[in-house]
Amino acid sequence: MPKLSIIMPLYNEAARLERCLKSVIAQQDQNFELIMVNDASTDQTPQIATRFIRHHSNMSLLTQPSNQGISAARNRGMRAAQGELITFIDGDDWLEPQYTSYFLQKFAQRPLDMVVCGYVREPQRAPALLRSKHFQGYCGREEVLRHITKNSGQVKGYTWNKVYHLALINKYHLQFESDLSLMEDQVFNVQYATHAQHFYIGTQPLYHYWQHNQSATHTYDLESAKSVGLANYRIVKTLLKSKKSQK
């Protein structure tokens, strides 16, 4: 049984998927499984994924019957995951070779519920190395929630720079909310953190985050505004509920 499950939703990622998968197979610690979830791509994405699967037994591909969005794809991957730990990466990004070993070593050193690494925003024409200037090390719930909900820093609400315990996710029936087109990852992180206790925030930049003009963070319309408002409402509701339960 693999120690770490990596869930990768895929939708029309043919242009950059090979780069991502090459970075996955180059990991120094291979104690992981990669579960790709094809969200009804219309390009060569599934063919590229299948080519890699033929040569790597720790890779698999699930197929959605129709395009259902990134949250549904992540949830499908979670249901299939066999690892003790779990993370989520995107098919147009890529990893440093130490990505899996960093997380696995941190979880082996002491009991933790979440571990965070640093990341680099791409493309290279204007790289932005994102490291926390204010905090690095072990922390509690209040500290990590502050970082998750901040609009700046190297933690934020992303899932690909964090690793979680799958048992904790399953215990509290956590999942990504499919009615959100933006900030679904931040909502998930806040919900997870309110049930967790022990965290480690690192600054080592091990994930390359590719931002292109078509990404959700570069487009904003009425539907996006609605999603942001709903996500913020759920975040505040979760935080208030957590504070109330701690009294």
Automatic annotation (TrEMBL):
Keyword list, A-Z: Glycosyltransferase, Transferase
Record's keyword annotation contains Glycosyltransferase: yes
GO molecular function: glycosyltransferase activity
Domain Glycosyltransferase 2-like: 5-142
InterPro entries the record matches: Glyco_trans_2-like (IPR001173), Nucleotide-diphossugar_trans (IPR029044)
Pfam families named in the record: Glycos_transf_2
Top-level lineage group: Bacteria
Entry keyword annotation includes Magnesium: no
Protein name, per record: Glycosyltransferase 2-like domain-containing protein
